[in-house]
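Weekly sync, protein design subgroup
Attendees: M.S., D.O., the rotation student, P.L. (late)

Item 1: inverse folding check
M.S. brought a backbone from last month's batch and wanted to see whether the design step gives back something sensible before we order anything. D.O. pointed out we never logged the input encoding, so this time it goes straight into the notes. Structure tokens as presented (232 positions):
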């Protein structure tokens, strides 16, 4: 007797994971770089907090709008392609069936079985459209990402990421390096968490994000220091 082993996959079709990950990382890197850049010219805590909060609000709004527009545009493009495919299924069902047979036999399916399945699908246009969409476009028509979910995930996660480098400053500490250190810890933690979702070594993911954030901070700090000296 065959034992059926149940296993579960993560939900990767809703459009929230990529937006949330990108939003959090972008929020962290953006505000770390902003604080470092301004800190290179001035260590005034109020100025650093103002810079960080402006970056948080502007960045979160920008990320939300960008994600909504991106996903909505992608979905509209997919919808247009699906309309074309549905038209072809109606006016040329035999030709579309031949396409499926050719695709499946190229993957090793017996020709007779491929033809049998393709003929069955001809009698069910909705299922035929779903199969053609998966085979030709690489999408599942009823599992497209939600632009609102992507926008909300990006907005919230950017704001959360952006506030981390500001924590010590908001608590009244004037030390720029403490703020950057907390931001670095946030980057390492975010990279480690994301790596766990992808089954990669957590320390490698964390170290990679930390080094990328460090590079951004060093570059912007240098720019701030040069501009600050020249203005002074």
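Designed sequence read out in the meeting:
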């Amino acid at each position: 007797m065959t034992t059926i082993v149940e296993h579960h996959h993560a939900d990767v079709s809703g459009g929230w994971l990529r937006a949330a990950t990108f939003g959090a990382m972008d929020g962290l890197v953006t505000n770390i770089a902003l604080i470092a850049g301004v800190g290179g010219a001035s260590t005034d805590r109020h100025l650093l907090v103002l810079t960080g909060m402006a970056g948080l609000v502007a960045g979160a709004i920008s990320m939300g709008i960008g994600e909504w527009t991106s996903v909505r545009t992608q979905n509209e493009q997919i919808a247009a392609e699906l309309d074309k495919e549905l038209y072809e299924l109606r006016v040329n069902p035999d030709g579309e069936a031949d396409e499926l047979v050719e695709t499946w036999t190229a993957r090793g399916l017996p020709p007779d079985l491929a033809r049998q399945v393709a003929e069955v699908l001809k009698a069910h246009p909705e299922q035929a459209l779903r199969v053609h969409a998966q085979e030709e476009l690489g999408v599942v028509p009823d599992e497209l990402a939600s632009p609102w979910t992507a926008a909300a995930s990006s907005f919230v996660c950017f704001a959360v990421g952006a506030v981390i480098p500001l924590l010590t400053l908001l608590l009244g500490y004037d030390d720029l390096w403490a703020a950057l250190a907390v931001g670095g810890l946030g980057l390492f933690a975010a990279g480690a968490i994301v790596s766990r979702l992808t089954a990669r070594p957590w320390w490698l993911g964390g170290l990679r994000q930390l080094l990328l954030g460090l590079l951004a901070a060093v570059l912007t700090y240098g720019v701030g220091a040069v501009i600050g000296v020249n203005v002074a």
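Discussion: Residues 45-91 form the longest helix (47 residues). The mean pLDDT is 89.
Action: P.L. to compare against the previous round before Friday.
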